[in-house]
Amino acid sequence: MTSRRRLGAVLLAVPLAALAAACGSAEKSATETKLVAPVRTTTTSSTVPLPLGRPSRIVSLSPTVTETLFAIGAGDQVVAVDSFSNYPPEAPVTDLSAYEPNIEAIAKYQPDLVFTDGTNPDLESQLNKLGIAVFAAKAPKNLEQVYQQVEQIGAATGNIAQAGAVSLTMQDEINAILRTYTRPTDGKIVYYYELDNTFYSASSKTFAGAVFNALGMINIADEVDTKQTAGYPQLTPEFIVSKNPDVIFLADTKCCQQSAATVKARPGWESIRAVRENRIVELDDDIAMRWGPRVVELVRTVVAGLTGITPDPDKIFE
Amino acid sequence: MFGAALAALALAVIVGVIAGTSGIAPGRVLLEVIDRLTPWRIDSGLDPRERNIVWQLRMPRVVLAGLVGAMLSLAGASYQGVFRNPLVDPYLLGAAAGAGLGATIAISYLRSSRENWAVDPIVGLGFVGAIIAVVATYLVGAAGGARTSTSLVLAGVAVTAFATAFQTFLQRQDDETRREVFSWILGRLNTATWGDVRLVVPYIAVSTVVLLMYRRQLDVLRVGEDEAGALGVQVARTRLWVVAAATLGTAAAVSVSGLISFVGIIVPHTVRLLGGASFRRVLPLSLLVGAAFLIATDTFARTASGGDNIPIGVVTAFFGAPFFIVLMRTRAVAR
Question: Of A163, A307, B9, B109, which one has the greatest count of Cβ atoms within 10 A?
Fold first, then answer.
């Protein structure tokens, strides 16, 4: 069994690397410190200390960090961002890649600080060897860590005040949205979160799960998520239909052109409560997979999608 | 031997239909199948959702796995015969790489217009890509001048390399498509529908009939191309028809199921070790055993880990390889 799954892990490594580049894996806590600047990297084994003061040649290999950097006013310190960083539009996109990294190409920008999403430790140690400081901004496990990471990035780039303000605004807005949602008292809402049209899913242990956890919802993928699937199991359609989720969230509207209409057209899926009652929420893939300032928009879309949904009386949990 | 193969296939189908993760009683599933497929009317007691699971999710997946397994095994055995090379698989002449390129083009350029197509362009262009790649291989091989199959095999290597390189290049142009391309390459039995089955059945049927018709010529070819020619077999023509038919079926299988490796090599050899080397036996037996093998491995893939789908290539290799090694050893001892 073990070696089969290990084999599986190897074969899965390719697509999951792609996923991980976009989503990040929620392995270790991203943030352990409060606002203390300038900090050493608290998140990785980076052997090169972060630059003091205001780094002026930042390279971001994480789309999430790119969004955060521009939101906290560090945009003019950024010299290059990776090919997935498509927001904001003014970000200096290059063909640098975090999961097929070309160290020389990164070094050519002579960065004084490189941000990664922490899913590729080899990349960090190689950059360290060239004397380049690395900040690995790993995927957070809950909203608290989302806010903390914004502040940490602020501290590392010398934008403490503005990062603090962004973090506070995010907290205020998200809390306000969460307050508009009344949790059902007679059960829990069950959801399926779709990452692509072959039914890869994200469990509640991933960053995506953090938002739904804050709303007290139950993720059908949790039941089959193991150490090997690492938060991203591929569900069988039989499993999805038999779990009969109350609501479906599509994080594959861009990558795979999925929509409420395409889900309704899938044979056999009409037996799912979410499909029957038209509870299919289309998310923007990018927003759904990044934990930067646009998390606010994600929370807003999710909560709006939950309006009027009641727990399925036929389901019994705990 | 045929009886055993048929029994294995029947067993695989039955287990495939009654096995699942949603806790439907196997006996009820059997009653449901009898109710629907025979004149007897029995109340199986399944609710509508369970009926959907059996008829819309499990059944098409079992049937598609059977068709794809049968086709890949038959094509593999035929290729091995016509190229007189035991290491050949159905993807040898570029079918897989061509299909991958076609699917990538569809994913990259036809994403937004997908609903306007009668057939999913990924499937359509995957199919066309596989055919074009093998035709290119044939033309390049013929241009090479040699009339042996070696030049064809070399041309296949070149076309495969080119198509793969071009696919990688396209993928790098557009990061957003990566996920879908990788999912496609990993295999898509997880999304099997009756629509997929309807799409591939005609091609696989034609391919199967033609390949089985050539089983005697393939037997004669075993003595060598020149010798077979002296014995009255039109070698070049046989090669063309066998390759054309095997390519048609392989292209259809690959376009709906993605790349499922290993089946096309391991099944024909297993059949050969168990039932003798004559293609009159190897071809039909490969068909039956290939279907049974892929149905069984896919049933394992979708049930062994709860609702988590294990990639099919992992399962086929994990069970196929040790079985084959044991078989080779025991046969060697017996001899």
Answer: A163
Measured between beta carbons, which residues in chain A are less than 8 angstroms from residue B199? Answer: none
Supply the ipTM of this predicted assembly: 0.89
Stated as kind and residue range, the H or E segment containing A239 is helix A237-243
Q: How far is A193 from chain B (nearest CA, A)?
A: 14
Whole-model pTM: value is 0.86
- The CA distances from residue B214 to A18, B207, B280, in Å, are 45, 11, 9
Is B193 near chain A, with CB under 8 Å?
A: yes
Which of B182, B188, B198, B300 to probe the A interface (max A CBs under 10 A)?
A: B182
Whether chain A has a CB inside 8 Å of the CB on B316: the answer is no
CB pairs under 8 A between A and B: 133
CA distance A271 to chain B (A): 5
Q: Cβ separation of B176 and A241 shorter than 8 Å?
A: no
Q: Name the minimum distance, in Å, from the CA of A19 to any CA of chain B.
A: 7
B196 touches chain A (CB under 8 A): no
pLDDT of residue A7: 38
Residues making up chain B, counted from first to last: 335
Total Cβ atoms within 10 A of residue B250: 34
CA distances from A316 to A64, A270, A311 (A): 37, 21, 10
| Non-local CB neighbours of A132 within 8 Å, separated by 6+ positions | A48, A106, A107, A111, A112, A113, A114
Residue A113, strand partner residues: A58
Q: Which residues contact A176 (CB under 8 A, 6 or more apart)?
A: none
Beta-carbon separation of B49 and A266 below 8 A: no
Q: What tens-digit pLDDT sequence spans chain A (318 residues)? A: 334 333 334 334 334 333 433 333 333 333 333 343 434 434 545 788 888 889 999 999 999 999 999 999 999 999 999 988 999 999 999 989 877 789 999 999 999 999 999 888 889 899 999 999 999 999 999 999 999 999 999 999 999 999 999 999 999 999 999 999 999 988 899 999 999 989 999 999 998 898 999 999 999 999 999 988 889 999 999 999 999 999 999 999 988 889 999 999 999 999 999 999 999 999 999 999 999 999 999 999 999 999 888 898 877 554
Cα separation of A149 and A168, whole Å? 12
* Residue B16 contacts A where some CB pair is shorter than 8 Å: no
List strands edge to edge, sheet with A190-194: A218-219, A190-194, A247-250, A280-282
Tell me how far apart the alpha carbons of residues B156 and B133 are, in angstroms, rounded to a whole number: 8
Chain A residues within an 8 Å CB radius of B63: none
Exposure string for A281-310, b = 16+ CB within 10 A, e = fewer: bbbbbbbbbbbbbbbbebbbbbbebbeebe
Q: What is the DSSP string of A135-157?
A: EE-PPPSSHHHHHHHHHHHHHHH
